[in-house]
Protein backbone atom coordinates (compact mmCIF):
# COMPACT_ATOMS: atom_id res chain seq x y z
CA UNK A 1 0.00 0.00 0.00
CA UNK A 2 1.29 3.49 -0.77
CA UNK A 3 1.81 5.70 2.25
CA UNK A 4 -1.05 8.01 3.16
CA UNK A 5 1.21 11.06 3.00
CA UNK A 6 3.83 12.11 0.45
CA UNK A 7 4.86 15.20 2.34
CA UNK A 8 1.85 16.99 0.92
CA UNK A 9 -1.72 16.03 0.32
CA UNK A 10 -2.83 12.52 1.10
CA UNK A 11 -2.80 9.94 -1.65
CA UNK A 12 -5.52 7.32 -1.87
CA UNK A 13 -4.79 4.10 -0.03
CA UNK A 14 -5.27 1.82 -3.03
CA UNK A 15 -3.14 -1.26 -3.70
CA UNK A 16 -0.69 -0.97 -6.55
CA UNK A 17 -2.10 -2.08 -9.93
CA UNK A 18 -0.58 -5.54 -9.83
CA UNK A 19 -1.83 -6.17 -6.30
CA UNK A 20 -5.48 -5.58 -7.11
CA UNK A 21 -7.51 -8.81 -7.21
CA UNK A 22 -9.13 -7.94 -10.54
CA UNK A 23 -5.70 -7.51 -12.11
CA UNK A 24 -4.71 -11.05 -11.18
CA UNK A 25 -8.02 -12.33 -12.51
CA UNK A 26 -7.51 -10.40 -15.72
CA UNK A 27 -4.08 -11.94 -16.13
CA UNK A 28 -5.61 -15.40 -15.98
CA UNK A 29 -8.50 -14.38 -18.16
CA UNK A 30 -6.09 -12.93 -20.71
CA UNK A 31 -4.52 -16.36 -21.20
CA UNK A 32 -7.97 -17.71 -22.06
CA UNK A 33 -8.96 -15.02 -24.52
CA UNK A 34 -5.71 -13.83 -26.10
CA UNK A 35 -6.03 -16.21 -29.05
CA UNK A 36 -9.75 -15.67 -29.60
CA UNK A 37 -10.62 -14.30 -32.99
CA UNK A 38 -13.19 -11.63 -33.69
CA UNK A 39 -14.60 -13.70 -36.48
CA UNK A 40 -15.39 -16.54 -34.05
CA UNK A 41 -16.72 -14.20 -31.40
CA UNK A 42 -19.13 -12.62 -33.87
CA UNK A 43 -20.03 -16.08 -35.18
CA UNK A 44 -20.83 -17.37 -31.69
CA UNK A 45 -22.98 -14.40 -30.74
CA UNK A 46 -25.03 -12.87 -33.54
CA UNK A 47 -26.06 -10.05 -31.18
CA UNK A 48 -22.51 -9.09 -30.27
CA UNK A 49 -22.57 -5.96 -32.43
CA UNK A 50 -25.60 -4.75 -30.53
CA UNK A 51 -24.66 -5.98 -27.08
CA UNK A 52 -21.16 -4.58 -26.80
CA UNK A 53 -22.20 -0.99 -27.32
CA UNK A 54 -23.12 1.96 -25.16
CA UNK A 55 -24.98 5.14 -25.99
CA UNK A 56 -25.29 8.48 -24.25
CA UNK A 57 -25.71 12.14 -25.17
CA UNK A 58 -26.04 11.42 -28.88
CA UNK A 59 -22.80 9.39 -28.86
CA UNK A 60 -22.90 5.74 -29.88
CA UNK A 61 -19.91 3.71 -28.80
CA UNK A 62 -19.46 0.35 -30.50
CA UNK A 63 -16.70 -1.63 -28.81
CA UNK A 64 -17.79 -5.01 -30.16
CA UNK A 65 -14.84 -5.17 -32.58
CA UNK A 66 -12.41 -5.35 -29.69
CA UNK A 67 -10.69 -8.52 -28.53
CA UNK A 68 -12.85 -8.80 -25.46
CA UNK A 69 -15.73 -10.84 -24.12
CA UNK A 70 -18.41 -9.64 -21.74
CA UNK A 71 -16.34 -11.24 -19.01
CA UNK A 72 -13.32 -9.16 -20.01
CA UNK A 73 -15.39 -6.00 -19.75
CA UNK A 74 -16.79 -7.06 -16.38
CA UNK A 75 -13.30 -7.66 -15.00
CA UNK A 76 -11.92 -4.45 -16.46
CA UNK A 77 -14.72 -2.44 -14.89
CA UNK A 78 -14.02 -4.21 -11.62
CA UNK A 79 -10.38 -3.22 -11.95
CA UNK A 80 -11.48 0.40 -12.33
CA UNK A 81 -13.67 0.01 -9.27
CA UNK A 82 -10.84 -1.50 -7.25
CA UNK A 83 -8.63 1.38 -8.34
CA UNK A 84 -10.93 3.64 -6.35
CA UNK A 85 -12.34 5.27 -9.48
CA UNK A 86 -15.71 6.37 -8.05
CA UNK A 87 -13.94 8.06 -5.11
CA UNK A 88 -11.34 9.64 -7.38
CA UNK A 89 -14.03 11.04 -9.66
CA UNK A 90 -15.71 12.62 -6.66
CA UNK A 91 -12.36 13.89 -5.41
CA UNK A 92 -11.69 15.61 -8.74
CA UNK A 93 -15.15 17.16 -9.02
CA UNK A 94 -15.08 18.41 -5.46
CA UNK A 95 -11.74 20.20 -5.77
CA UNK A 96 -9.46 17.85 -3.80
CA UNK A 97 -5.77 18.31 -4.57
CA UNK A 98 -5.49 15.24 -6.73
CA UNK A 99 -2.49 16.66 -8.57
CA UNK A 100 -0.29 15.46 -5.75
CA UNK A 101 3.14 16.41 -7.06
CA UNK A 102 2.10 20.03 -7.55
CA UNK A 103 -0.38 19.92 -4.66
CA UNK A 104 -3.13 21.39 -6.80
CA UNK A 105 -6.81 20.85 -7.40
CA UNK A 106 -7.72 19.68 -10.88
CA UNK A 107 -10.82 21.53 -11.83
CA UNK A 108 -11.22 21.83 -15.57
CA UNK A 109 -14.76 20.63 -14.81
CA UNK A 110 -15.34 23.94 -12.99
CA UNK A 111 -14.71 25.78 -16.28
CA UNK A 112 -18.02 24.51 -17.58
CA UNK A 113 -19.99 24.31 -14.36
CA UNK A 114 -23.34 26.14 -14.38
CA UNK A 115 -23.47 29.59 -12.78
CA UNK A 116 -25.21 28.35 -9.66
CA UNK A 117 -22.83 25.44 -9.00
CA UNK A 118 -20.58 25.53 -5.96
CA UNK A 119 -17.06 24.10 -6.21
CA UNK A 120 -14.77 24.89 -3.34
CA UNK A 121 -11.01 25.32 -3.43
CA UNK A 122 -9.69 26.08 0.06
CA UNK A 123 -13.22 26.93 1.13
CA UNK A 124 -13.66 29.41 -1.70
CA UNK A 125 -16.28 28.88 -4.42
CA UNK A 126 -14.46 29.18 -7.77
CA UNK A 127 -17.55 29.10 -10.01
CA UNK A 128 -18.38 32.85 -9.82
CA UNK A 129 -14.89 33.80 -11.05
CA UNK A 130 -15.21 31.32 -13.92
CA UNK A 131 -18.40 33.03 -15.07
CA UNK A 132 -16.96 36.46 -14.51
CA UNK A 133 -14.09 35.54 -16.82
CA UNK A 134 -16.51 34.08 -19.38
CA UNK A 135 -18.57 37.28 -19.29
CA UNK A 136 -15.42 39.39 -19.71
CA UNK A 137 -14.37 37.23 -22.67
CA UNK A 138 -17.86 37.38 -24.14
CA UNK A 139 -17.94 41.15 -23.91
CA UNK A 140 -14.52 41.53 -25.51
CA UNK A 141 -15.15 38.94 -28.22
CA UNK A 142 -18.41 40.64 -29.16
CA UNK A 143 -16.75 44.04 -29.40
CA UNK A 144 -14.04 42.67 -31.68
CA UNK A 145 -16.60 40.82 -33.80
CA UNK A 146 -18.99 43.71 -34.25
CA UNK A 147 -16.26 46.29 -34.80
CA UNK A 148 -16.61 48.26 -31.59
CA UNK A 149 -13.06 47.30 -30.59
CA UNK A 150 -10.87 49.04 -33.13
CA UNK A 151 -7.15 49.00 -33.77
CA UNK A 152 -4.87 51.94 -32.95
CA UNK A 153 -5.53 53.68 -36.26
CA UNK A 154 -9.30 53.20 -36.04
CA UNK A 155 -9.43 50.20 -38.37
CA UNK A 156 -11.53 47.14 -37.63
CA UNK A 157 -9.77 43.99 -36.43
CA UNK A 158 -9.71 41.44 -39.25
CA UNK A 159 -6.99 39.12 -38.01
CA UNK A 160 -6.49 37.48 -34.65
CA UNK A 161 -3.15 35.82 -33.95
CA UNK A 162 -2.98 33.49 -30.96
CA UNK A 163 0.49 33.28 -29.46
CA UNK A 164 1.03 30.36 -27.09
CA UNK A 165 2.47 26.87 -27.02
CA UNK A 166 1.51 23.41 -25.78
CA UNK A 167 -1.68 23.66 -23.79
CA UNK A 168 -1.93 27.35 -24.70
CA UNK A 169 -1.97 26.55 -28.40
CA UNK A 170 -3.09 23.02 -29.27
CA UNK A 171 -6.57 23.30 -27.74
CA UNK A 172 -7.70 26.57 -29.33
CA UNK A 173 -6.08 25.56 -32.61
CA UNK A 174 -7.73 22.14 -32.70
CA UNK A 175 -11.10 23.59 -31.74
CA UNK A 176 -10.86 26.43 -34.24
CA UNK A 177 -10.13 23.95 -37.02
CA UNK A 178 -12.95 21.72 -35.77
CA UNK A 179 -15.47 24.56 -35.67
CA UNK A 180 -14.30 26.49 -38.70
CA UNK A 181 -17.69 26.09 -40.28
CA UNK A 182 -19.14 28.10 -37.38
CA UNK A 183 -16.50 30.85 -37.48
CA UNK A 184 -16.95 34.41 -38.65
CA UNK A 185 -15.86 34.46 -42.23
CA UNK A 186 -14.37 37.96 -42.35
CA UNK A 187 -12.10 37.33 -39.38
CA UNK A 188 -8.94 35.26 -39.85
CA UNK A 189 -7.52 33.33 -36.92
CA UNK A 190 -3.89 32.25 -37.00
CA UNK A 191 -1.60 30.57 -34.50
CA UNK A 192 2.05 31.08 -33.60
CA UNK A 193 3.68 28.63 -31.23
CA UNK A 194 7.16 27.58 -32.34
CA UNK A 195 10.30 29.45 -31.30
CA UNK A 196 11.33 29.05 -34.95
CA UNK A 197 10.83 32.49 -36.52
CA UNK A 198 9.38 30.86 -39.62
CA UNK A 199 6.22 30.22 -37.64
CA UNK A 200 5.81 33.91 -36.81
CA UNK A 201 6.73 35.03 -40.31
CA UNK A 202 4.21 32.70 -41.96
CA UNK A 203 1.44 33.44 -39.47
CA UNK A 204 1.73 37.18 -40.03
CA UNK A 205 2.54 37.09 -43.74
CA UNK A 206 0.29 39.45 -45.64
CA UNK A 207 -1.43 40.80 -42.52
CA UNK A 208 -2.01 44.51 -41.98
CA UNK A 209 -0.77 45.35 -38.45
CA UNK A 210 -3.51 47.99 -38.17
CA UNK A 211 -6.10 45.20 -38.44
CA UNK A 212 -4.32 42.60 -36.32
CA UNK A 213 -4.96 41.62 -32.71
CA UNK A 214 -2.52 39.41 -30.80
CA UNK A 215 -3.89 37.20 -28.04
CA UNK A 216 -0.89 36.15 -25.97
CA UNK A 217 -1.66 33.01 -23.95
CA UNK A 218 0.64 31.79 -21.25
CA UNK A 219 -0.47 30.39 -17.96
CA UNK A 220 2.92 30.98 -16.35
CA UNK A 221 4.08 33.93 -18.46
CA UNK A 222 7.53 32.38 -18.25
CA UNK A 223 7.53 30.34 -21.44
CA UNK A 224 10.48 31.17 -23.69
CA UNK A 225 8.68 30.51 -26.97
CA UNK A 226 5.62 32.54 -26.14
CA UNK A 227 7.44 35.51 -24.65
CA UNK A 228 9.91 35.61 -27.53
CA UNK A 229 7.11 35.45 -30.09
CA UNK A 230 5.15 38.11 -28.20
CA UNK A 231 8.18 40.43 -28.27
CA UNK A 232 8.65 39.81 -31.98
CA UNK A 233 4.96 40.51 -32.51
CA UNK A 234 5.26 43.76 -30.60
CA UNK A 235 8.23 44.84 -32.73
CA UNK A 236 6.37 43.84 -35.91
CA UNK A 237 3.32 45.81 -34.87
CA UNK A 238 5.15 48.92 -33.72
CA UNK A 239 7.27 48.95 -36.89
CA UNK A 240 4.15 48.48 -39.00
CA UNK A 241 2.34 51.33 -37.30
CA UNK A 242 5.04 53.93 -37.73
CA UNK A 243 7.00 53.25 -34.56
CA UNK A 244 4.28 54.21 -32.14
CA UNK A 245 4.79 52.09 -29.06
CA UNK A 246 1.46 53.03 -27.49
CA UNK A 247 -0.20 51.32 -30.49
CA UNK A 248 0.20 48.01 -28.70
CA UNK A 249 -2.61 48.86 -26.27
CA UNK A 250 -5.30 48.18 -28.90
CA UNK A 251 -3.50 45.21 -30.44
CA UNK A 252 -2.43 43.02 -27.53
CA UNK A 253 -4.44 41.18 -24.94
CA UNK A 254 -3.18 38.50 -22.60
CA UNK A 255 -4.48 35.33 -21.04
CA UNK A 256 -2.50 34.31 -17.99
CA UNK A 257 -2.46 33.52 -14.29
CA UNK A 258 0.50 35.90 -13.88
CA UNK A 259 -0.77 39.47 -13.67
CA UNK A 260 2.63 40.92 -12.77
CA UNK A 261 4.34 39.32 -15.76
CA UNK A 262 1.64 40.57 -18.10
CA UNK A 263 1.90 44.14 -16.74
CA UNK A 264 5.68 44.03 -17.03
CA UNK A 265 5.39 43.06 -20.68
CA UNK A 266 3.31 46.19 -21.19
CA UNK A 267 -0.19 44.78 -21.57
CA UNK A 268 -2.79 46.71 -19.60
CA UNK A 269 -4.15 44.40 -16.84
CA UNK A 270 -7.61 45.60 -17.97
CA UNK A 271 -6.94 43.63 -21.17
CA UNK A 272 -5.89 40.53 -19.34
CA UNK A 273 -8.14 37.50 -19.04
CA UNK A 274 -7.57 35.29 -16.04
CA UNK A 275 -7.43 31.61 -15.40
CA UNK A 276 -6.17 29.68 -12.43
CA UNK A 277 -3.53 27.25 -11.25
CA UNK A 278 -6.18 24.56 -10.82
CA UNK A 279 -6.54 24.39 -14.61
CA UNK A 280 -3.84 22.32 -16.31
CA UNK A 281 -2.54 23.74 -19.60
CA UNK A 282 -3.70 20.79 -21.67
CA UNK A 283 -7.13 20.99 -20.03
CA UNK A 284 -7.53 24.72 -20.52
CA UNK A 285 -8.97 25.59 -23.89
CA UNK A 286 -12.45 26.01 -22.44
CA UNK A 287 -11.04 28.67 -20.10
CA UNK A 288 -9.86 32.10 -21.26
CA UNK A 289 -7.18 30.22 -23.23
CA UNK A 290 -10.06 29.78 -25.70
CA UNK A 291 -10.43 33.53 -26.15
CA UNK A 292 -9.23 33.54 -29.76
CA UNK A 293 -11.62 30.66 -30.50
CA UNK A 294 -14.44 32.61 -28.89
CA UNK A 295 -13.65 35.63 -31.05
CA UNK A 296 -13.85 33.39 -34.10
CA UNK A 297 -17.05 31.48 -33.30
CA UNK A 298 -18.75 33.99 -30.98
CA UNK A 299 -19.68 33.74 -27.30
CA UNK A 300 -22.93 31.92 -27.97
CA UNK A 301 -21.28 29.06 -29.83
CA UNK A 302 -18.55 28.95 -27.19
CA UNK A 303 -21.20 28.53 -24.51
CA UNK A 304 -22.83 25.75 -26.54
CA UNK A 305 -19.46 24.02 -26.50
CA UNK A 306 -19.34 24.38 -22.71
CA UNK A 307 -22.82 22.84 -22.51
CA UNK A 308 -21.41 19.83 -24.35
CA UNK A 309 -18.43 19.57 -22.00
CA UNK A 310 -20.78 19.81 -19.01
CA UNK A 311 -23.10 17.10 -20.33
CA UNK A 312 -20.16 14.69 -20.66
CA UNK A 313 -18.93 15.70 -17.18
CA UNK A 314 -22.33 14.82 -15.75
CA UNK A 315 -22.43 11.55 -17.65
CA UNK A 316 -18.94 10.69 -16.40
CA UNK A 317 -19.85 11.53 -12.83
CA UNK A 318 -23.17 9.73 -12.70
CA UNK A 319 -23.38 6.90 -15.26
CA UNK A 320 -22.68 3.37 -13.99
CA UNK A 321 -19.11 2.42 -14.81
CA UNK A 322 -20.13 -0.35 -17.23
CA UNK A 323 -22.08 2.15 -19.36
CA UNK A 324 -19.83 5.12 -18.79
CA UNK A 325 -18.29 6.17 -22.11
CA UNK A 326 -14.96 7.56 -20.83
CA UNK A 327 -14.57 4.55 -18.54
CA UNK A 328 -15.19 2.11 -21.40
CA UNK A 329 -12.61 3.80 -23.62
CA UNK A 330 -10.11 3.87 -20.77
CA UNK A 331 -10.42 0.25 -19.70
CA UNK A 332 -10.01 -0.86 -23.30
CA UNK A 333 -6.84 1.20 -23.49
CA UNK A 334 -5.58 -0.46 -20.31
CA UNK A 335 -6.48 -3.89 -21.73
CA UNK A 336 -4.31 -3.42 -24.80
CA UNK A 337 -1.56 -1.53 -22.99
CA UNK A 338 -1.11 -3.78 -19.98
CA UNK A 339 -2.16 -7.19 -21.26
CA UNK A 340 -1.56 -7.29 -25.02
CA UNK A 341 1.50 -5.05 -24.70
CA UNK A 342 0.31 -2.61 -27.38
CA UNK A 343 2.44 0.52 -27.35
CA UNK A 344 0.36 2.85 -29.47
CA UNK A 345 -3.19 3.73 -30.26
CA UNK A 346 -4.43 5.37 -33.44
CA UNK A 347 -7.26 7.90 -33.33
CA UNK A 348 -8.82 8.27 -36.74
CA UNK A 349 -11.46 10.95 -37.14
CA UNK A 350 -13.51 10.67 -40.31
CA UNK A 351 -14.05 14.38 -40.49
CA UNK A 352 -11.70 16.78 -42.14
CA UNK A 353 -12.43 19.43 -39.54
CA UNK A 354 -10.94 17.17 -36.86
CA UNK A 355 -7.58 17.22 -38.57
CA UNK A 356 -5.79 18.50 -35.47
CA UNK A 357 -7.67 16.29 -33.04
CA UNK A 358 -5.06 13.50 -32.92
CA UNK A 359 -2.31 16.05 -32.22
CA UNK A 360 -4.41 17.55 -29.46
CA UNK A 361 -5.03 14.11 -27.95
CA UNK A 362 -1.36 13.33 -28.22
CA UNK A 363 -0.63 16.03 -25.67
CA UNK A 364 -3.67 15.24 -23.58
CA UNK A 365 -2.80 11.57 -23.21
CA UNK A 366 0.96 11.55 -23.46
CA UNK A 367 1.65 14.50 -21.18
CA UNK A 368 -0.98 13.32 -18.73
CA UNK A 369 -0.04 9.68 -18.52
CA UNK A 370 3.59 9.48 -19.60
CA UNK A 371 4.68 8.90 -16.00
CA UNK A 372 7.08 6.40 -14.43
CA UNK A 373 6.17 6.73 -10.76
CA UNK A 374 2.91 6.18 -8.92
CA UNK A 375 1.16 8.65 -6.64
CA UNK A 376 3.48 7.71 -3.81
CA UNK A 377 6.54 8.44 -5.95
CA UNK A 378 7.49 4.78 -6.42
CA UNK A 379 8.68 3.50 -9.79
CA UNK A 380 5.90 1.53 -11.44
CA UNK A 381 6.56 -1.99 -12.68
CA UNK A 382 4.09 -1.82 -15.54
CA UNK A 383 3.42 0.20 -18.66
CA UNK A 384 1.64 3.54 -18.39
CA UNK A 385 0.75 6.10 -21.08
CA UNK A 386 -0.17 5.27 -24.63
CA UNK A 387 1.46 6.72 -27.70
CA UNK A 388 -1.37 8.42 -29.56
CA UNK A 389 -1.24 9.22 -33.22
CA UNK A 390 -3.49 9.49 -36.23
CA UNK A 391 -4.74 11.42 -39.22
CA UNK A 392 -8.21 12.12 -40.47
CA UNK A 393 -9.79 9.50 -42.75
CA UNK A 394 -9.61 8.81 -45.57
CA UNK A 395 -6.14 10.27 -46.06
CA UNK A 396 -4.57 7.90 -43.56
CA UNK A 397 -5.95 4.93 -45.49
CA UNK A 398 -3.65 5.79 -48.38
CA UNK A 399 -0.68 6.19 -46.12
CA UNK A 400 -0.19 4.25 -42.90
CA UNK A 401 -3.19 1.93 -42.64
CA UNK A 402 -1.20 -0.74 -44.48
CA UNK A 403 0.81 -1.34 -41.31
CA UNK A 404 -2.36 -1.58 -39.22
CA UNK A 405 -3.88 -4.13 -41.62
CA UNK A 406 -0.89 -6.32 -42.37
CA UNK A 407 2.01 -5.25 -40.16
CA UNK A 408 3.37 -7.13 -37.18
CA UNK A 409 2.21 -4.67 -34.55
CA UNK A 410 -1.06 -4.56 -32.70
CA UNK A 411 -2.56 -1.09 -33.02
CA UNK A 412 -5.99 -0.59 -31.50
CA UNK A 413 -7.83 2.20 -33.30
CA UNK A 414 -10.62 4.60 -32.42
CA UNK A 415 -12.72 5.52 -35.45
CA UNK A 416 -14.78 8.68 -35.03
CA UNK A 417 -17.55 9.55 -37.49
CA UNK A 418 -20.56 11.85 -37.78
CA UNK A 419 -23.92 10.75 -39.12
CA UNK A 420 -24.98 14.11 -40.53
CA UNK A 421 -22.80 15.90 -43.03
CA UNK A 422 -21.92 19.54 -42.46
CA UNK A 423 -21.65 19.89 -46.22
CA UNK A 424 -24.10 17.53 -47.90
CA UNK A 425 -22.37 17.78 -51.26
CA UNK A 426 -23.16 14.99 -53.69
CA UNK A 427 -22.18 11.56 -52.37
CA UNK A 428 -19.19 12.73 -50.34
CA UNK A 429 -20.51 11.97 -46.90
CA UNK A 430 -21.82 8.50 -47.68
CA UNK A 431 -18.54 7.65 -49.34
CA UNK A 432 -16.60 8.95 -46.36
CA UNK A 433 -18.68 6.93 -43.90
CA UNK A 434 -18.60 3.84 -46.13
CA UNK A 435 -14.83 4.00 -45.82
CA UNK A 436 -14.94 4.26 -42.04
CA UNK A 437 -17.25 1.27 -41.76
CA UNK A 438 -15.33 -0.75 -44.31
CA UNK A 439 -12.06 -0.19 -42.49
CA UNK A 440 -13.41 -1.42 -39.16
CA UNK A 441 -14.86 -4.45 -40.91
CA UNK A 442 -11.67 -5.20 -42.80
CA UNK A 443 -9.52 -4.77 -39.71
CA UNK A 444 -11.73 -7.11 -37.70
CA UNK A 445 -12.32 -9.85 -40.26
CA UNK A 446 -9.52 -9.47 -42.78
CA UNK A 447 -9.38 -11.54 -45.94
CA UNK A 448 -8.69 -15.27 -45.79
CA UNK A 449 -6.89 -17.69 -48.11
CA UNK A 450 -10.27 -19.23 -49.01
CA UNK A 451 -11.76 -15.85 -49.92
CA UNK A 452 -8.74 -14.96 -52.03
CA UNK A 453 -8.79 -18.32 -53.76
CA UNK A 454 -12.48 -18.00 -54.49
CA UNK A 455 -11.80 -14.58 -55.98
CA UNK A 456 -9.31 -16.18 -58.38
CA UNK A 457 -6.09 -14.84 -56.83
CA UNK A 458 -2.99 -16.62 -58.21
CA UNK A 459 -1.75 -19.02 -55.57
CA UNK A 460 1.76 -17.58 -55.33
CA UNK A 461 0.30 -14.16 -54.51
CA UNK A 462 -2.01 -15.31 -51.76
CA UNK A 463 0.44 -15.00 -48.79
CA UNK A 464 1.05 -11.35 -49.68
CA UNK A 465 -2.62 -10.58 -49.91
CA UNK A 466 -3.93 -12.36 -46.85
CA UNK A 467 -5.17 -9.94 -44.18
CA UNK A 468 -5.28 -11.67 -40.85
CA UNK A 469 -7.95 -9.47 -39.34
CA UNK A 470 -8.45 -9.57 -35.58
CA UNK A 471 -7.24 -5.96 -35.44
CA UNK A 472 -9.27 -4.24 -32.69
CA UNK A 473 -11.25 -1.08 -33.31
CA UNK A 474 -13.75 1.03 -31.42
CA UNK A 475 -16.22 3.13 -33.36
CA UNK A 476 -17.69 6.35 -32.02
CA UNK A 477 -20.66 7.60 -34.01
CA UNK A 478 -21.88 11.10 -33.26
CA UNK A 479 -24.92 12.87 -34.69
CA UNK A 480 -23.25 15.95 -36.09
CA UNK A 481 -20.12 18.04 -35.56
CA UNK A 482 -21.30 21.08 -33.58
CA UNK A 483 -19.75 23.17 -30.81
CA UNK A 484 -21.76 21.10 -28.36
CA UNK A 485 -20.69 17.72 -29.71
CA UNK A 486 -17.08 18.87 -29.87
CA UNK A 487 -17.30 19.78 -26.18
CA UNK A 488 -18.62 16.30 -25.44
CA UNK A 489 -15.93 14.65 -27.52
CA UNK A 490 -13.08 16.52 -25.84
CA UNK A 491 -14.49 15.86 -22.36
CA UNK A 492 -14.85 12.19 -23.31
CA UNK A 493 -11.12 11.92 -23.97
CA UNK A 494 -10.17 14.16 -21.01
CA UNK A 495 -11.98 11.81 -18.68
CA UNK A 496 -10.65 8.76 -20.49
CA UNK A 497 -7.11 9.95 -19.74
CA UNK A 498 -8.09 10.54 -16.11
CA UNK A 499 -9.53 7.03 -15.69
CA UNK A 500 -6.39 5.48 -17.18
CA UNK A 501 -4.30 7.51 -14.74
CA UNK A 502 -6.44 6.32 -11.83
CA UNK A 503 -6.00 2.69 -12.87
CA UNK A 504 -2.26 3.15 -13.33
CA UNK A 505 -2.14 4.97 -9.99
CA UNK A 506 -0.22 7.95 -11.39
CA UNK A 507 -0.52 11.74 -11.29
CA UNK A 508 -2.04 12.62 -14.67
CA UNK A 509 -1.85 16.32 -14.02
CA UNK A 510 1.80 17.22 -13.60
CA UNK A 511 4.46 17.48 -16.35
CA UNK A 512 7.92 17.61 -14.80
CA UNK A 513 9.51 16.29 -17.98
CA UNK A 514 8.24 19.36 -19.85
CA UNK A 515 9.65 21.58 -17.12
CA UNK A 516 13.12 20.01 -17.55
CA UNK A 517 12.99 20.75 -21.27
CA UNK A 518 12.17 24.36 -20.48
CA UNK A 519 15.34 24.66 -18.36
CA UNK A 520 17.89 22.99 -20.60
CA UNK A 521 17.96 25.38 -23.54
CA UNK A 522 18.66 28.32 -21.21
CA UNK A 523 22.15 27.00 -20.59
CA UNK A 524 23.05 26.49 -24.24
CA UNK A 525 21.61 29.72 -25.67
CA UNK A 526 24.43 31.99 -24.38
CA UNK A 527 26.97 29.49 -25.66
CA UNK A 528 25.52 29.78 -29.15
CA UNK A 529 25.24 33.54 -29.02
CA UNK A 530 28.55 34.37 -27.32
CA UNK A 531 30.97 36.39 -29.49
CA UNK A 532 33.97 34.72 -27.91
CA UNK A 533 34.49 31.00 -28.04
CA UNK A 534 32.75 29.72 -24.92
CA UNK A 535 34.39 27.06 -22.79
CA UNK A 536 32.08 24.11 -23.22
CA UNK A 537 31.47 21.58 -20.52
CA UNK A 538 28.83 19.34 -22.04
CA UNK A 539 29.44 15.82 -23.28
CA UNK A 540 31.69 15.48 -26.34
CA UNK A 541 28.75 15.14 -28.72
CA UNK A 542 26.95 18.28 -27.53
CA UNK A 543 30.23 20.24 -27.41
CA UNK A 544 31.04 19.32 -31.01
CA UNK A 545 27.53 20.11 -32.25
CA UNK A 546 27.72 23.52 -30.60
CA UNK A 547 31.11 24.23 -32.20
CA UNK A 548 29.87 23.19 -35.64
CA UNK A 549 26.73 25.28 -35.32
CA UNK A 550 28.79 28.32 -34.26
CA UNK A 551 31.05 27.92 -37.29
CA UNK A 552 28.14 27.69 -39.72
CA UNK A 553 25.47 29.96 -38.23
C1 LIG B 1 0.24 21.56 -20.49
C2 LIG B 1 1.64 21.83 -20.26
C3 LIG B 1 2.31 22.65 -21.32
C4 LIG B 1 2.01 24.14 -21.23
C5 LIG B 1 2.99 24.89 -22.12
C6 LIG B 1 2.75 26.37 -22.11
O1 LIG B 1 -0.46 20.94 -19.74
O2 LIG B 1 1.82 22.34 -19.00
O3 LIG B 1 2.02 22.21 -22.61
O4 LIG B 1 0.70 24.39 -21.59
O5 LIG B 1 4.28 24.59 -21.71
O6 LIG B 1 2.86 26.88 -20.82
P1 LIG B 1 2.36 28.33 -20.49
O7 LIG B 1 0.90 28.42 -20.77
O8 LIG B 1 2.68 28.55 -19.04
O9 LIG B 1 3.12 29.27 -21.40
Task: Please describe the structure with a list of short key phrases separated by commas or semicolons.
single chain, five-stranded parallel sheet, six-stranded mixed sheet, binds glucose-6-phosphate, alpha/beta, disordered N terminus, 10% strand, 45% helix, 553 residues, 21 helices
Detailed description of the structure:
- By secondary structure, the protein is an alpha/beta fold.
- The chain contains 21 helices and 13 strands.
- The chain has helices at residues 21-33, 38-44, 48-51, 70-82, 85-93, 127-146, 170-178, 197-204, 224-240, 259-265, 291-297, 299-318, 325-340, 357-369, 401-406, 428-445, 449-454, 462-465, 483-504, 512-529, 540-552, and strands spanning 53-56, 59-62, 120-121, 124-125, 159-163, 188-192, 212-217, 252-256, 272-274, 344-349, 387-389, 413-418, 473-478.
- The strands form 3 sheets. The protein has a 6-stranded mixed beta sheet, sandwiched between helices. A 5-stranded parallel beta sheet has the order 6-5-7-8-9, sandwiched between helices. A two-stranded antiparallel sheet has the order 3-4.
- The longest helix has 22 residues, at 483-504.
- The model is unreliable at 1-7 (pLDDT under 50).
- The structure holds glucose-6-phosphate.
Amino acid sequence: MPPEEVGGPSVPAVPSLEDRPAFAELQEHFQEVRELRLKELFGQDPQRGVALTAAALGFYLDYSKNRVTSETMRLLVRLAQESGLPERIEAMFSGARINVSEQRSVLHVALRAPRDAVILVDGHNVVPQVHQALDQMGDFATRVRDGRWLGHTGKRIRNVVNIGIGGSDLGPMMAYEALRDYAKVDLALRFVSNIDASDFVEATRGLDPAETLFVVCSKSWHTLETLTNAETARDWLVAGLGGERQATARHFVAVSTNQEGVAEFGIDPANMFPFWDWVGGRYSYDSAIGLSLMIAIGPERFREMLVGFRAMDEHFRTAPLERNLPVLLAVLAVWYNNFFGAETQAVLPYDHYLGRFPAYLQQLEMESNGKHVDLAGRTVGYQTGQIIWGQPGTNGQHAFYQLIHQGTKLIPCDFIGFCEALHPLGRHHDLLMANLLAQTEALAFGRTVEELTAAGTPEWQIPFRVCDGNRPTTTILIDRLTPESLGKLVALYEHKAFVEGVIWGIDSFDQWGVELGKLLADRITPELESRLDPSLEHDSSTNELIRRYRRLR
